[in-house]
Specification:
This protein is α+β, with helices and mostly antiparallel strands and about 150 residues long. It has 4 helices and 8 strands. The chain has one domain: Immunoglobulin-like (Sandwich). The protein has a 4-stranded mixed β-sheet with strand order 4-1-7-8, with no helix packed on it. A 4-stranded antiparallel β-sheet has the order 3-2-5-6, with no helix packed on it. The longest helix is centred in the first third of the chain and has 19 residues.
């Protein structure tokens, strides 16, 4: 009887710990004409999504440093990264999932064909995410977090 009680308690603890650790999803929408090449063609956007311990090095690193010297630029703050391409005019594509316990921030670098006047970097503290979803827009102005007024 005592073994059954401990087994039941272990199962309940396991269920609560897995229910509380829902991964945080990064969802991207790539809008029309957000990444035009030299000929005016709308081409896929390449994103590098970083899982970070801290945002300071990411914040101060240039896009060029992140591309060419990622390990030097981020050092021990980088936990993991993934490179993904999002086709033009694709809406609400899941590009990454992160467990909040594995890092405090996410950083995203957008590699545009033409960077003139575009915001290329975005970062966010994971414990400030509501509903475990970060929605990102890729527009003519660059990378921004989704809000109801953005299109």
């Amino acid at each position: 009887m005592m073994i059954l009680k401990y087994l039941l308690m272990a199962i309940i603890i396991a269920l609560f710990s897995t229910a509380c650790s829902t991964p945080i999803q990064v969802i991207v929408s790539n809008y029309e004409d957000s990444n035009l090449n030299n000929r005016g063609d709308n081409v896929p956007i390449t994103l590098i999504v970083y899982q970070l311990k801290d945002s300071k090095k990411f914040e101060y690193a240039s896009p060029k440093d992140l591309i060419s010297r990622e390990s030097v630029a981020l050092g021990r703050d980088k936990i993991d990264s993934i490179k993904i391409q999002v086709p033009p005019n694709e809406k609400e594509i899941l590009v990454a999932e992160f467990n909040e316990k594995e890092g405090d921030y996410i950083g995203i670098l957008a590699l545009f064909s033409n960077i003139k006047g575009k915001k290329q970097k975005f970062y966010k503290k994971l414990n400030s995410v509501f509903e475990n979803i970060i929605k990102i827009n890729i527009t003519k102005n660059g990378i921004t977090e989704f809000d109801d007024n953005t299109k």
